Amino acid sequence: MEQANQDLMTSAADFANTPQGLAQRWGKEISSAKQELRKFHEDAEKIIKRYRDDNRGESNNDSARYNVLWANTQIRLPAVFAKLPKADVSRRFRDRDQVGRVASLLLERSLDFEIEHYPDFRATMTQCVLDRLLPGRGVAWARYEPHVSAQDIPEDGLQITEDIDDVDGAPRDAVPVTDPPELAGEETLEQLEYECAPVDYVHWADFGHSVARTWEEVTQVWRWVYMTREAVIERFGEDVAKTVSFNATPDPLQKKTEKRERNLAKICELWDKETGEVVWYAKDGTDLIDVRPDPLGLEQFFPCPPPLYATVTSDTLIPVPDFVLYQDQANDLDILADRIDGLIKALRVRGVYDASVPELQRLLTEGDNNTLIPVQKYMALSEKGGLAKAVDLLPVDVIAKALLDAYKAFEEVKGQIDELTGISDIIRGETEASETATAQQIKGQYAGLRLRTARDEVALFATWLIRLKAHIICTKFQPDTILKYADAESMTPADQELIPQAIALLKNDPLRIFRIQVAADSLVQIDEQQTKADRLEFLKASAEFIRDAVIPVSQTAPDLAPLMLEFFKFGVGAFKEARSLEGSIDAFLEQVKQQQEAQKQQAAMNPQPPPEDPALMKAKAEVENIQTRTKLDVVRTQAELQADQTRLQMEGMKHEANMAQGAQKAQMAQQQAQQRMAMGAVP
Fold first, then answer.
1. Per-residue pLDDT band at 58 (split at 50, 70, 90)
2. Which of 452, 640, 492 minimizes the C-alpha distance to 580?
């Protein structure tokens, strides 16, 4: 490494600051890094061949092999990456910033659209994780890609409102361009149709960086791109296409296959952090093709995240592939697999028989259940000792024992590989239906211990890629594109009112305002039942908190109601699926505060009189009691007088009724006496 660094210092000082001198300098830089990675590339090619089983025939163990590398990779790949990541965009400081909340929602929706709509992200992540598991280094490359169309220039002349960036991110002013031949003579203007932020997979052999011990010491990164003549003309122009050789193609690892047609140009895209420039360099060219200042303005300058490395140490960035660490045991497995295959083939009935009794051969070839084969000279065969003396079979018990010993040794070696690779943890995590829920949970937690580190590394790699996407979206995308990707029309009217401020916030140094991360669990298959259980647990806890804390406190101490809502919002923030409720909680919290403020203002406008003296209040109470008792006495007296008057009236009416009744009786007696007298006078 010291020799390589010395070569770099010499190259930087010796070459002139001219296009040709810079081309020679970067050519030497790339050659030095390639020499550093020579063994890594050789090991990577061997590992890829073994994974594909392309090296069959290169050793003596070809009759039977056990491809443990393929088996382990197929197990570990879905264990660390099985589905697309879910971006988590939130405000860096969880305060009641409604504009920041809407901005993070717009950015998160735009990222989800980019990840799900374009297939490049899934393919890139899968290939990078596979490269991490096989050669030991996975690399991805982010870029900005606008798609433009040519339209006629209006009669009032060329009007430019915004710059449009080309596929490499470098600024391209809107200028008249030449139409196809059938429209020759007319001028057109480039108009933006749509834009995206793709993530390219970079093959492990096409990536390089300056020689360094850690990623923080890397000052240059580059990748080799194979371009057709049309692509070179579109990107660099006709003059460059004439100087570039189109005699390259990505070579297959299997050299025995038919050679591919070499009709591509091998172009190097190099990013230099020290100079802040991007350089395009042709493999066979003598000059630099293009040099431009930093086109993307990324926070870490490089358009690629730190590669997804296998085993690395602090003194070099050359990774050690996982297979190298257990290749000896893998070779032993191949040997044992070949031995087992040979023993299985040898495990068959073989022996000799008396040729004078040809019917004995038919006994093994034609004999079936309950089948007897006639023997012409049976008496002679019986005198010689019968069938036991006429046939002598090769013993197979020795072969069977050797086969069992080979199987045992095979399992022991395979167990060693499982321990080295962590496959044993996955096997330990397997549960049975008869086990208790606690036992299954313990096994599941134990199985994830060894895989957690690899899963976190993949999650961090995905987080880097999504951050690069987010920066490109915020700084390069047009506001209309962001709103369309985020489906802003479906947002609530209150959130739509904050969209202009949110867009302005996204354009202002977004990665320092927002926290963007990918949860490792979002990359693997999670049981849907667990997700449902978590949501039910959240709803239950929320209902209990509202019933037991929010409502009682709000009734007894209304001033503490906003504080209790803040506690509730704090709990909601721990659940990603429930973060959409934060806006509603903030709105309700603001409404409660406004109501409390209105009540305070009302109380200030209608002040209450000061409290009276307790002694005076007691005297007033006694006077009121006396007045009340007096009123009650008057009412009672009046009632009694009215009752007496009513009784007298009733007695008078009764006396008058008695007198009338007596007069009526006297009158009737008088009438009866007169009638008797009259009857006595009759002769």
1. low
2. 492
How many other CB atoms are there within 10 angstroms of residue 583's CB atom? 18
Q: Which of 18, 174, 86 lies closest to 523, judged by CA? A: 86
Coil, strand or helix at 327: helix
Residue 491: DSSP 8-state:
S
Q: What average pLDDT does the segment 258-268 reach?
A: 77
Contact predicate 133/325, CB 8 Å: no
Query: Residue 364 belongs to what H/E stretch?
Result: helix 359-365
Q: How many CB atoms lie within 10 A of CB 309?
A: 17
**Which residues are 350's β-sheet partners?**
none
pLDDT digits 0-9 by tens, 197-216:
999 999 999 999 988 999 99
**Helix spans in 573-613 (H):** 582-605
Q: What percent of the chain has pLDDT over 70?
A: 67
Query: What CA–CA distance (Å, rounded) separates 277 from 139?
Result: 21
| Nearest residue to 208 via CA among 248, 266, 253, 249 | 266
Q: In sequence order, what are the residues at sequence separation of 6 or more whose Cβ sits closer than 8 angstroms to the Cβ of residue 30? A: 208, 222, 268, 270, 281
Q: For residues 29, 32, 36 and 40, what is the CA-based torsion angle, rounded to 10 degrees?
A: 70
Separation of first and last alpha carbons in the chain: 180
DSSP state of 100: H
Question: Could you give the C-alpha distances from 561 to 97, 546, 574, 590, in angstroms and in order?
Answer: 20, 11, 21, 11
Query: Looking at residue 449, what is its pLDDT?
Result: 65
Question: In this model, does residue 133 exceed pLDDT 90?
Answer: yes
**Distance of alpha carbon 284 from alpha carbon 183, whole angstroms:** 36
Give dist(CA 427, CA 343) in Å, integer. 29
| The dihedral formed by the CA atoms of 98, 101, 102 and 106, expressed in degrees to the nearest 10 | 170
The answer to whether 473 and 110 are in contact (CB under 8 A) is yes
CA distances from 566 to 105, 547, 552, 592, 598 (A): 21, 16, 16, 12, 20
Q: What percent of the chain has pLDDT over 90?
A: 13
Residues 380 and 358: their CA atoms lie apart, in Å, by 13
Phi–psi pair at 158, nearest 5 degrees: -85, 120
Rg (CA), the chain: 48
Please give the Cα distance from 25 to 210 (Å, whole number): 12
For helices 19-36 and 2-14, what crossing angle results, to 10°? Answer: 180
The pLDDT score that the predictor gives to residue 578 is: 58
State the pTM of this model: 0.69
Flag whether pLDDT at 343 surpasses 80. Answer: yes
Residue 155 confidence (pLDDT): 47
**Would you say how long the chain is, in residues?**
683
pLDDT value at residue 175: 32
Instruction: List, for residues 559-568, the tens digit of each pLDDT value.
Output: 666 766 676 6
Which range has highest mean pLDDT (286-300, 377-391, 582-596)? Answer: 286-300
Report CA dihedral (523, 528, 533, 534) to the nearest 10 degrees.
20
Mean pLDDT: which of 133-147, 495-509, 653-667 is highest?
Answer: 133-147
Residue whose token pair is 């096409």: 206
CB neighbourhood size of 406 (10 A):
20
Q: What is the pLDDT of residues 292-303, one digit of tens each?
A: 898 888 888 999
Q: What share of the chain is helix, strand, coil (3-state, %, to 5)?
A: 60, 15, 30
Q: Determine contact, residues 560/553, Cβ cutoff 8 Å.
A: yes
Question: Residue 285 in contact with residue 302, Cβ under 8 Å?
Answer: no
The token duo for 634 is 């008057």
The answer to whether the CB of 153 falls within 8 A of the CB of 189 is yes
pLDDT digits (tens, 9 = 90+) for 515-540: 656 554 565 555 445 566 667 777 77
CA atoms within 13 A on the CB side of 472: 32
